[in-house]
Amino acid sequence: MTWEPVIGVEVHVELSTRSKMFCGCAVDFTSPPNTNVCPVCLGLPGALPVPNRRAIEHLMSIGLALGSEVSSRSVFHRKNYFYADLPKNYQISQYDVPVCRGGHLDITVDGETRRIGIERAHMEEDTGKSTHVGLGGRIHAASATLLDFNRSGVPLVEIVSRPDIHSASDARVFAQELRGLVLELGVSDARLEEGSLRFDANVSIRPAGSTGLGTKVEIKNMNSFRSLERAVDHEVSRQIGVAESGGELVQETRHWDEEAGVTHPMRTKEGSSDYRYFTEPDLVPMTFDDAWISSVAATLPELPAQRRSRYQEVGLDGRQAATLAESPPRIRQVFDEATGLGADPTAAFNWLSGEVVSHLRRAGLESEELHLGGAELFELVTIVEEGLVSATAAKEVLEGVLTGEGGPREVASSRDLIQVSDATRIGEVVDAVLTANPDAVAGYRDRGEEKVVGFLVGQVMRQTQGKADPRVVNELLREKLASQPGGTPATG
Amino acid sequence: MPVDVDIAYVARLARLELSDDELETYRAQLGVILEHAARVQDLEGDPHVEATHTLGLENVFRDDVVTASLSRDEVLAAAPEARDGYFVAPPALET
To answer: Do B87 and A142 touch (CB under 8 A)?
Structure first.
């Protein structure tokens, strides 16, 4: 039997606000442990949480970017569980009335776009950070748990996809796309290595072609895109193995072991009754009217997917569009300006993604320090098209522009790189070269040696210090070779 | 109509260790409370009446401004055990 994986991804995004979700403690992960804490985020009795407006607006912008509906009314719930990283014994989260519902995120894999549905995006608070010390620091063998509550109460958005994903690599691409989106929105620094972006995946399998849902297993502890893909891949194979050997899959949470490359059972999956959700009595309802929603919507930047399709509309292929969409803002700005002036998009892209990027890398510069405007790139593309400089000389022109020598035409002329396209002047050199190389001419004429042409072109280029337009040289050479005394036109 | 409560399950969710006598006491008491709740639910009227929040307030927010935190010494002084600026808790046990 062939099996189809059914995958949903949950992404936790730590928001980059200055202060925490429900108190004024600083969000700062460089501080010594337990220095950004107060009665609210330590869960001391009598403390009163008050939500951070900016965090709520960040969540609204994530939702709007995903095409979600922002609820007209939303409330917080307490999610109860027993773990030392939550001093209150509950996490303030959302249950049945999240701020954002529905929506979708498009992913593009090998030129094919797939729409992944979004179930919801809700607001919650992060937990403290626990370090398990003792035998090897592994969770199952710890002898004590050290707790730092600096992270407790940091605003956290949970985005839940629908089970619309059917391969491990699509799960990875979805997570990457979502990361690009929150970065573009400027709501999170989305650093995986620091845990500001975390993923869980819900994985089940079903016979290919059927539509039901199998037993769902939640996998946790994937801290990179690669480990997300590996973990899902492994879990799918494991489930197929169990199903095909007549075993029964159980609904559970499994822990991804990066080193071993396997998932281990962690705990029996809680049902929502285990969390004993109830409305958070300390927080009043939030209502979202059209005026508030549209004022947040008005601040949304162009998103990666929109940008990719815009670049494809101006003429880049899918791969180029994707590369450019992920390029730094300054690079994109130069591209937009140059093509706005009429530069050929592919040529502009090639310069930016090739020579310009390697110049920045060589010089150790940030893209914001780039010494190239859109108008200059347009001029560079134009002088190559016009044949004023050769493609090779254009690289030197660019170098001059990037090091501040002036505009492309100016550099071409000051560095003496202007290409000679004048047929009369080139003709004279061609004649001289032909006279000086009678053997080569004979080789072509009598034995049809095609490589002779390349050799002669080289000679002409050398005599003109590389400034002759190779197209003109080629044309003239072939013309003149064919009309050499006793010549038989050789055709390749 | 009496409401049947799986009191052992409820106790387990709350991590409460109860004796058989206690289980029976709470089963009966919780049953009475839930029976009352069921009667309230049966009342006719607007089902959308706000029942979870009674203050009549909405949209109470704070600006994203950092305020002073507590001193760590003060914070850890209240902890049963502390080490190197951290709270110390018993090792995490998977249940």
So the answer is: no
Tokens standing for residue A240: 């197929």
Domain boundaries, chain A: 3-295, 304-414, 423-482
Helices (H), A214-365: 225-244, 290-297, 304-314, 318-325, 329-341, 345-351, 357-363
Distance CA A114, CA A105 (A): 8
Half-sphere exposure of A285 (CA within 13 A, CB side): 16
- Report which secondary-structure segment, H or E, holds A105: strand A104-109
Q: How far apart are CA A405 and CA A175, in angstroms?
A: 44
Phi, psi of A129 (to 5 degrees): -105, 125
Nearest Cβ partner for B62 among A53, A266, A286: A53
Residues A204, A205, A210, CA angle at the centre, nearest 5°?
A: 125
Whole-model pTM above 0.95? no
A238 residue type, one letter:
R
- In terms of Cβ atoms closer than 10 Å to its own Cβ (0-12, 13-18, 19+), residue A30 is exposed
Half-sphere exposure of A42 (CA within 13 A, CB side): 24
At A426, phi and psi to the nearest 5? -65, -40
Distances (CA, A) of A436 to A109, A275, A450: 57, 92, 18
* B94 neighbourhood in chain A, CB within 8 Å: 139-140, 266-267
CATH of domain A423-482: 1.10.10.410
Quote the CA–CA distance of B91 and A451 in Å, as a whole number: 78
How big is the A-B interface in CB pairs under 8 Å? 133
**Interface residue ranges in chain B relative to chain A, Cβ cutoff 8 Å:** 13-15, 52-53, 55, 57-70, 72, 75-76, 83-92, 94-95
Q: What is the pLDDT along chain B (95 residues), one digit of tens a residue?
A: 567 888 998 898 888 999 999 999 999 999 999 999 888 878 776 655 566 777 889 999 999 999 999 999 999 998 999 999 999 998 765 43
Q: How far is A227 from chain B (nearest CA, A)?
A: 23
* A 120-159 near B (Cβ less than 8 A): 130-132, 134, 139-140, 142-149
